[in-house]
Amino acid sequence: MTGLDAFVGSWQEQSKEGFDEMASALGLPADKVELYKAAKTAISYGKDGDGWVINVGLVGVPGGREFKFHVGQPYDSADIDGSPMKSLVNVDNGKLVEQHTNQSLGAEMNIERWIEDGQMHVKTSCSGLSMLSKYAKV
């Protein structure tokens, strides 16, 4: 498989390193930090005509979000606490390379996703800090 095809399907977060520092960089309120730290993110990717659809939520918590996008074209999304973002997804050597800008704070977040040994690895960078998460296909 090439490009996004390797990402198609449902994924559940198994581990995350560097979350506390990243939560601080994102300005998450203290009450949300503990919630998100304990929570596991669920993500699914699928085709939508000539574009893509991503569903993002927390395992066991109703009300996830769905975003539709085309590679290389900006789209509207939201961060973990629902704040509006402008986002852009590109593909580079089998990796998803995402740029997100929080519209309220002007904060920029960069995410790289890649598949390695059957797991999706996700490196999130913001304000000079990084977090690494690993997901298993479910």
TrEMBL record:
One of its GO terms (molecular function) is lipid binding. Gene3D superfamilies: 2.40.128.20. InterPro entries: Calycin (IPR012674), Fatty_acid-bd (IPR000463), ILBP (IPR031259). It holds the Pfam family Lipocalin_7. Belongs to the calycin superfamily. Fatty-acid binding protein (FABP) family. This is Fatty acid-binding protein 7, brain. It comes from Mytilus galloprovincialis (Mediterranean mussel).
